Structure formats: structure tokens, C-alpha cells
Amino acid sequence: MHTHKPHKLEEIHASKGYEASDVRISGVVVFLVALTIFAVVVGVLAYGLGKVLNARMKTEDGPPSRWAKQVDVRPLGTMPSNPEMQSKLSEMTQSFPTPKLQTDDGSQDVADMHAREDLLLDNYSWADEAHSRVRIPIERAMELIAQRGLPVAKPVEQAPLMTGDKKPVIAVPLTNGFTRTGYELEQKAANAGRAGERK
To answer: Considering the domain boundaries, does residue 199 fall inside one?
Structure first.
């Protein structure tokens, strides 16, 4: 009867201060060979894929003609700037269309927008002159609505409420949704102060 004896592990002596056994060179060689084969395979695949893509691009672009040919501009070197082009470029950048970069935080733009809205809300103006439609001031519109009332839509038939459901309640808004910005209030106070000084 054959008995299997376990391999006895070599005892490590820390007193030597270094690894007593040699490195296994076969593992390093296998890794380097596999890495080289992988690099060669990837290089061949990349080269072949490049050839296929270039051939396809040539067939799609058609044969080269005198109108479509590549020119090597490297011998020309760095060309000096054209003063005429520089002046045109500066004109274009000076008259760049909106939106432009704001020099402040946009408060003046908001104030201007509210001023335009006030002009529309407080004055008569044409909404559609061809069809004789006129905008009226908002105060006059509110007076007319108070006199005539709003048109009433037909009541919508609602299904009976299910158990546990409640009828929706519409809350009245606390404001009309419009308020002046702090910048506009400061400008208004400053204008009022100037008007008081003139008197």
C-alpha cells in the first residue's frame, strides 16, 4: 500500500534578511511572450482596419480630381496678419448680435423689460392694425370686466366622488404674481429724490 507524504515546506529563516529561493523565470517568460503576441495581434488588426476604412473612404469620395486635391501648406510657413481682415474682425466683434455679455447683474435689463411691459399695460396700442384689434390699458380692462363680468363656461359634469375623495379647493393667490425688483425700487426712489431736489 502506497502512502502519500505531504511536501514539507521550507522553513523561512528571517535572520538571513533576504529571500532565500530564486524567482521562477518561466512565469516571467510566459507573460512577456503573451504580451508580445497580444501587441502584434492588436497592431495587425489596427493596420488592417485602417486599410479597410481608407479604401471605403476612397470609394465614397470618388477618384481625385483637379478640384479636390490635397495641398501641403507647411512650406508656406506662418503668414503675416492681414490688416484689412483684422479691421473686419474687430468690426464684427464690436457689432456682435445679442445676447451680449452683461456688464452688471442684469438688473437694468429687467427694469427695461418692466418699463416696456408698463407701456403695454398702461396705454392704448395696436395689437393687430390689419384686423382693427387694439390693446387697452389694464385699468380700463378691469373696469369693463367688473361691469360686464367674465363669460361663464358651461359647468362640467363631474363623476360622483369616490369614497374618501374630497372636492378640490382652489386657493386664491396672495399676490398678482408681479413685483418690482430691488434695483427698480432703488431707481424709483433715486428719481423721486431728484424730482424733489428740483422743486
So the answer is: no
